[in-house]
Specification:
β4 and β5 form a beta hairpin. The chain is α+β, with helices and mostly antiparallel strands. The chain has seven helices and ten strands.
Length: 226
């Protein structure tokens, strides 16, 4: 089970760092040995912001060893700059520098859950929006267009209206039998147009009737527990 450190833990010590590292990589924790390819690391940060938050820990091996960074000031400068320039909208985070010795340290970025979702990672600084990413277990994947719309509309919290017709009846029958459905399966059963099927499922997620389970290839939709 993931254990988040309290938000007032502004001056993280080695003990607190080890508590995080011992949990291993997962939905809320990502290790990076070095700050190489910072434009790709931004995707991890965006994914945490679009999900439930998490920790990017730089200076830790995938196996949980903590060698730290020798030139940690330079790595922090590069990461701070790319977070500021390659994330839209701007992302809220807390930073901790954990010293291992006089010459080595670990960078810990605590990405806070966001009310401004969806966030996008830019491939280059002047790009207008870029791509949205989300966290699935210990992986960062590109968000589907449906997930992007769900994040936008959940933020706005506008009431949703829809009618209960033949297509909706078919949807609930499938969910009762199989427990989940994809957009393509809904299209196959109802002969709806792709955009129509997509909008119907998005509406039902925003209305708290369905819940969406993001996947790398195709999202699943299920009835939301009452």
């Amino acid at each position: 089970m993931w254990h988040e450190l309290p938000l007032n833990c502004l001056y993280m010590k080695l003990k607190e760092l080890k508590l995080l590292v011992d949990q291993g990589e997962g939905e809320h924790i990502e290790f990076k040995r070095k700050a190489r390819h910072p434009e790709k690391i931004v995707r991890e940060i965006v994914a945490f912001a679009n999900s439930k938050g998490g920790y990017l820990i730089v200076g830790v091996d995938d196996n949980g060893q903590i060698p730290g960074l020798k030139h940690y000031d330079e790595d922090k400068y590069v990461l701070d700059r790319v977070i500021a320039s390659h994330c839209r909208p701007a992302i809220r985070y807390r930073f901790n520098l954990v010293k291992l010795s006089d010459h080595r340290a670990v960078l810990v970025y605590h990405i806070l859950p966001s009310r401004k979702r969806p966030h996008f990672a830019l491939e280059y600084e002047d790009q207008k929006w870029g791509q949205a990413y989300i966290r699935i277990e210990d992986r960062t994947v590109q968000a589907s267009k449906e997930m992007v719309q769900i994040l936008k509309r959940q933020r706005r919290r506008k009431p949703v209206q829809f009618t209960y017709g033949t297509n909706e009846k078919t949807l609930f029958q499938i969910l009762e039998e199989n427990g989940k459905i994809t957009i393509q399966e809904l299209i196959d059963h109802t002969k709806m147009q792709p955009k129509e099927a997509s909008n119907m499922l998005i509406d039902m997620v925003v209305a708290d009737i369905l819940q969406v389970q993001a996947r790398e290839k195709e999202d699943f939709y299920m009835l939301k527990p009452t």
